[in-house]
Amino acid sequence: MKYATIAVFSWLMLVAGFAKAQSTRQPATNFTITGRVTGGENQESLTGVSVYIPDLQRGVVSDENGNYKIDLLPQSIILIQYTFIGYKSVLKLVDLVGDTTLNIDMEIAINDLNEVMVTSNNTKLNGNIPFAVTTLKMSDLNRYCAPGLMHNLSYQPGIDKISNGNGSAKPVIRGLSFNRILLYSQGTRIENQQWDDRHDLGVSSIGLEGVETVRGPAALIYGANALGGALIFRDEKPAATGTTLADANLDLCSNTLGVKGDIGLKSSSEKGFFYGVRLGGNSQTSYVQGEIDEKDKPEGEKEAFAPNSKYFDAAAKAFAGITGKWGMSKLSYSYLKQQIGIIEDESAGTVDPGADEEEQRDREMEAPYQDVASQVLSLENTLPVKKSKINVNFAWQSNIRKEYEPLADKQKELAFGLDLNVVTYDVKWTSNPERPFGFTIGSQGMMLKNKNNGMESLVPDATESDYAGYGLFRYDKGIMNLSGGIRCDRRKIEYEAYETDEVEPVYVLQSTGDTLYKPEADGENTYNPVSFSIGACFLLTDGLTLKVNGASGFTAPNYAQLATFGRHEGTYRFERGNTGLKVEQNVEADMGINWERTSVTAYINGYLNKVNDYIYLSNTGDTLIRTKAGNTGYFPLYDYKQDDATLSGFEAGVVFHPAMINWAEARLSYALITAKLNSGGNVPYIPANKLVGEVTFKKEKLGSLNNSFVTLVVSNYSKQTKVADYELSSDGYTLLDLHIGTSFKMGSQQATCSLYCTNVLNTGYYNQLSLVKYIGVADMGRNIGVRVHIPVYFSGKNK
Fold it and tell me: Which end of the chain is more exposed for a tag (fewer CB within 10 A), N or C?
C-alpha cells in the first residue's frame, strides 16, 4: 500500500502542475467543437444526446435546441461518439486545427446492435471489427435481476458461469474458463487468483457503464491469457462538462432477504478537471432452493435452504482526472471486500434441508467462508502527438484472500491465506486514424508476487513476470475493414514450497498404503509463446455484414496447475500439480454474418477452436487418505494432465422490432457447443446448450409514467450428458422470469422503478456448471424483488 500512496501523491502533484499550466496558457491554443444534433425524418433537434470524446474522457449533452459545445481540446485528430436512445450510434473523426463546427444528423434505429467499442482506446463500431464482440449496457444487463454480475451475463449466448451458490461465479466463454479468460478493467488486466473454480469473478458491478465481451482469442489486443476471450468492464463516464450530479440505487429481494444499494457523485468542471466517487454494499442470506420432490423433504419441512450460501460485499470506487490541450490523465481506485459462505455437505452425503431457518437467515458469517479484499489503483494517460497518439497506463493490484475453517463452538481458524500483489504496464503508439492504413506498436508487462500466510498451503509461493511486444495493423477501404498483427511474450514463473510451523497432515494412497509426501515444489518455468491474428469485415450490401477471422492465443500454466497439492474447503477432490506442463496454444477460425433491417436484426457466429496441450484435471482412480490431529478424510486424487482438444459451436440470435408495432419487441438467441479431447473423452466445464427468448411490451407514455415496459424471459437449457469422467450430467429445464418497469417524476428528478420475479414457477434445477450439485444442492428458487434508481442534479447547464 506504500507504493499506492506514493503513486496518488505523485499524481496529485502532477495534476496541480497541469492545472497551473492551464490557468496561464494562451486561449488561442485551445480549440472548440460546436454543432447541432438532429434526427428523424424531419431532422428535428435532439435534446439529451451524449457527445463524448473517449480518449479525453470529456463530453457534454445537447441542449433543448440540439446544440452542443466542447472546448479545451488539443490540436490533434479527435474521435467523437454520439449516442442517443432510439438512434444509431455515430462516430466522427475530426482533424482539429482550429475551432470547428460539426452538425450531426442521427438515423432512427429501433434496435441498434452496432454499439460503440471503446476498450484499449480502439474506438470503433463493433460492426467494423472482424472478431465476435458484443457491447452490453449495464441498464440492459440489470433487467435480468440475477444475483450477481456474472449471473446476468450468463443470459448471453456463448457466455456461461461456473457457480458455487449465489456468492461465487466464474466466467465461461465458448467452453473455456479460468486463466483462459482475460478480465480487463480500469485500463489494465485484472489478476485475482482466477485459477480456482471456487473463486469469484472479483469485480464489482457498481460504477460500471457496460461490459464488452470478446469471444475467441484476442491476445494481440488485450494482453496475455485471452485464449478463450475477454470480459472488459467499462467504468461509467465522467459527468458532462459543467455538471455535478448524483444518484442512488436500491435493490430488495425476497428469496435471500437481500439488500443491495449504492450511491454515487461525479462532477466535471469547465476547466477540464473531473472526479467521481461511488460506495455500495450487498448483503444476502442463504438462498432457498427451487421446488424439490416431496419425498426428498424431511417431514414437516417447507423451506429447503442451500446451507451457508449467504454472502456479503462492500465496494468503493473513485476517480479523478484532468484533460486539456496536452491530453488526458485519469487516476482510478477500486476496493472490493467480499465474504462468501462455502456450501458443504453437512450430513455425509445428503444436504440437510431442515437446517435452522434462524441460522440461515442470520447475516453473520460463520466458517467455512472466504474473506477476500481486492484493490486496484490505475493511472491512464492519453497523449496526442500531432496526428497520432500515445497511451501510457500503469496499475497496482492487491488481492488478499483468506479461507476460514470451522472449529468447535462456532469458532474458526485461518486455513489458507494468500497475499497477491501485481504491477502492470501498457504503453503503445497509434498512427493517424484518418488514413486507410494504420498501425499500433506497443509493449505490455506484468510483475506478480503471491505469498501464503495460512496454516496450510494449497499452492506454493510464486513470482511471475510477463513482458510482451506487439504490432497491429488495420486497413479500411470501401466496404472492407482488414486488421491483424503479431505478438511475442516471455513469461517466467518461479515457485517455492510454503513452510509453516504447523504439523503437516499425513497423506496415504488407499490402493497401496504408501505415504504421499508433499513435493518440494521449488522450480522455475519459462515460456516464449507467439500469437497472431488476421481478420476482415465486409459490408456486402446495406445492412448485411460478413466477418471472417483467424487467430491464435495462449495460456501459460499457472502456479496452481504446476505445483498445487491439497484440497480446498468445500471441494470433493484432492489436487496434485504437474511441473512439466507446457503452454496451451490454440488456433481458432470464426465466421459471422450480421443482417439488419427496419423490422428485424439477426446474426450467426460459428467457430472451430483447436487447442494444443489443453490442461485439465483427471481422476487417477485412487483415493487419498488425509489424516491430521485425529481428523481423517477420504478424497479422490486428481492430477493435472494435457491433451489436444477441439471445441466448436455457434451462437445465433434474432431481434424482431416491427416498425408498425413500436410497442412490442421480441428477442431469441441460441448457443451450441461441443468439446472433445483428441485422445477420447470430453472437455470438462462445458455448459449445456441454451435457448433464451424475450418478449417486451412497452409504452412511452402511460399517464404520469414514462418508458413503461413488461418483459417475459424464457430460458431453456438442454440436457447435458457429454461430460468429463468425473462430472455429473444434468437434466434439461426451463425457467421463466418476469420484469415490470417504469420511470416517473420525483420532484424535479426522473426516477425509475422495476419489479421482478425470477424463476416464477419455482423450478428445482441443477445447472450443469454448478459445483454444489455434487452434494445435492439445487439452484435458487423463486425470487421477487424491487429496484429503484434516483438521479439528483446539483448543478450544471445540462439538467
Answer: N
The most confident of the ranges 37-41, 81-85, 150-154, 404-408 is 150-154
Give the residue from 615, 612, 679 showing the smallest Cα distance to 641.
Answer: 615
DSSP symbols for 158-201:
TEEEEESSSS-EEEEETTEEGGGEEEEETTEE--S-TTSTTS--
Closest of 284, 289, 324 to residue 306, by C-alpha: 289
62 and 49 in contact (C-beta within 8 Å)?
A: yes
Which cell numbers hold the place of 594?
450480421
Model pLDDT for residues 240-252, shown as the tens digit of each residue: 999 999 999 999 9
Average pLDDT rounded to a whole number, residues 380-403: 93
Amino acid, res. 710: V
Residue 295 banded pLDDT, cuts 50, 70, 90: very low
Cβ pair 210, 231 in contact under 8 A: no
- The average pLDDT across 308-324 equals 95
Question: Do residues 548 and 535 lie in contact, with contact meaning Cβ atoms separated by under 8 Å?
Answer: yes
- Residue spans of beta strands (DSSP E) within 629-688: 631-656, 664-677
Mean pLDDT of the chain: 87
Query: H or E segment at 563?
Result: helix 559-563
Helix or strand run (H / E) with residue 754? strand 749-758
DSSP secondary structure string for all residues of 732-752: -EEEEEEEEEEEEEETTEEEE
How far is residue 502's CA from residue 654's CA, in Å, rounded to a whole number? Answer: 59
Q: Is residue 27 within 8 Å of residue 207, measured between CB atoms?
A: no
CA dist 768 and 611 (Å) reads 23
Residue 268 vs residue 455, higher pLDDT: 268
**306: phi then psi, degrees, rounded to nearest 5:** -85, 100
Phi, psi of 782 (to 5 degrees): -60, 140
Predicted pLDDT of residue 359: 87
Element (H, E) at 538: strand 530-541
| Alpha-carbon distance values, 198 to 151, 230, 447, 484, 784 (Å) | 15, 19, 24, 36, 27
Helix (H/G/I), strand (E/B), else coil: 691: strand
Alpha-carbon gap, residue 667 to 141, rounded angstroms: 14
**Burial (Cβ within 10 Å: 0-12, 13-18, ≥19) of residue 208:** buried
pLDDT tens profile 407-418: 888 889 998 999
The sign of the dihedral angle between the CA atoms of 136, 137, 142, 147 is positive
Calpha distance 517→230 (Å, rounded): 38
* Kind plus residue range of the DSSP H or E element containing 544: strand 544-555
Q: Provide the whole-model pTM.
A: 0.91
What sign for the dihedral angle of Cα 718, 724, 725, 727?
negative
pLDDT at 454: 86
